[in-house]
Amino acid sequence: MASTYTLNINGQNVNVTVNNPQMPLLWVIRDLLNMTGTKYGCGQGICGACTVIADGTTAVRTCITPVQNAVGHVITTIEGLSPNSSHPVQVAWVANQVPQCGYCQSGQILSCAAALADGNHGAALAQQMKNVCICGTYTRILQAVDTL
After folding, report:
1. Which residue has the higher pLDDT, 19 or 122?
2. How far apart are CA 124 and CA 115, in angstroms?
């Protein structure tokens, strides 16, 4: 039986209808809302490519988060972080030329932005980020984090 949920995504309330309330939020964002900046990586909540921010300060792995668990939370995707890429984390990423292939970067940026919004800086900020980068751009990621 289909269920309809109202989600707050990037500051807008949207209604989504799914056949299974356990459908991962990742597929709602990508397939139903056509926001493809959130990436599918491991599907097990390990790599972090699918990370979004909930309620301004919590990094959430959408591949393991059922859509029903997102109800009542404000969800920010990479598309909603900053309309003109002026968020301090995005600026730091560009200034330090972080991406190589770029696949994991939306999750990396959102993990960093959530930790920063939660009051973390420097080493504490880097420790909050638990994303995987298969290209190994960790040195540039850490350089960018150090500028925040």
Report:
1. 19
2. 9
Pairwise CA distance, residues 77 & 129, whole Å:
16
β partners of residue 18: 3
Alpha carbon separation from 101 to 1, 21, 84, 97 (Å, rounded): 40, 33, 21, 11
Q: What gap in Å lies between CA 133 and CA 126, rounded to an integer?
A: 14
Q: What pTM was estimated for this model as a whole?
A: 0.95
Which residues does residue 74 pair with via DSSP β-bridges, in sequence order?
Answer: 8
Over residues 78-109, the pLDDT tens digits come to 999 998 999 999 999 999 999 888 899 999 99
10 Å CB burial of residue 88 (0-12, 13-18, 19+) is middle
**CA atoms within 13 Å, Cβ hemisphere of 135:** 14
